[in-house]
Structures are given as C-alpha cells and as structure tokens.
Amino acid sequence: MDLKTALTTGLLIILVSMVLSAGCLTGSSPESREPPVVQPEYFNLVNPSVSNAVSIEKGKSFYSKNCKNCHGSEGFGDGAQAIMYEPKPTNLHDSQVQDKSEGELFQLISEGVKGTSMQAFKWLSEDDRWDIVNFMRTFEVEEGA
Questions:
Q1: If we measure between CA atoms, which residue out of 50, 76, 77, 75 comes closest to residue 60?
Q2: Which residue segment(s) compose the domain that 47 sits in?
Q3: How high is the mean pLDDT in each 10-residue block of the chain (145 residues)?
C-alpha cells in the first residue's frame, strides 16, 4: 500500500469514528443537568408497536448502532465512551428508568435529555424508536442501580 492510500484510509477511519461517536457528544456539562420534564403529549402515549420477538430484535439492532457506545451492550451505562461524560450515561436497568411509561421512554429517545450526553434521536423513524423502547423493557430492574 502506498503512502497516499494509507493516509486516506487512516483519515477515513478517524472520520467514521468521529461520526459514530457523535451520538454521545452533545450537552455533557454536569452543571446544566436537569431532570427530564415529561411533555403532556408523551406521558400517556401508547406504544403502537407490539412487543414481540421481531420488534425486540429490531430494537436491539437499533440500540447496538445508536446507544451501545454510551449505555453499554447490556444497558448498564458502561459503554466504551461512558468514561468521557459527566454526568455518566444512565443505567437503563435502574428502576427510575424502568418505572417510566412507554411514552416517557419514547420522549427521552426522541428528544434527548438536556444537560447530558443523551442526544435526540428523532431522525430514527417512530417505529424504530418504539422498537428500542420494547428492547429496553427486556432489561431487568435493579433497585437504586
């Protein structure tokens, strides 16, 4: 491989890494963290996606592509990039997460959380976001995690 090809390949790898990690880079200032306020239109929102093996597998796939770097492959908030953020990414097994309505979880995925590294994922289709909610519901609850 010649030098030009090696440099081009290296720059491409760096660029792709930056794009993939961008999901965890917004708003990570600890002093601006605010508890998420549930918007009325989300609170009683009913999940139109049936929670079945197909939906959960789709949700797992979208989670792996968009959430795993921060929340970890098992949802414990221990992803490869978690150490870069304060406040740390949320442990999705925590009862404070799992006790939320499906509409609230959909809002957090859709709108993100101000003052944290959790960005908005409105660019995913609604069906994709609901599938992520269904996948998140497979995490076992840990009190005070």
A1: 75
A2: 3-136
A3: 74 60 46 64 89 98 97 96 93 94 95 91 97 97 72
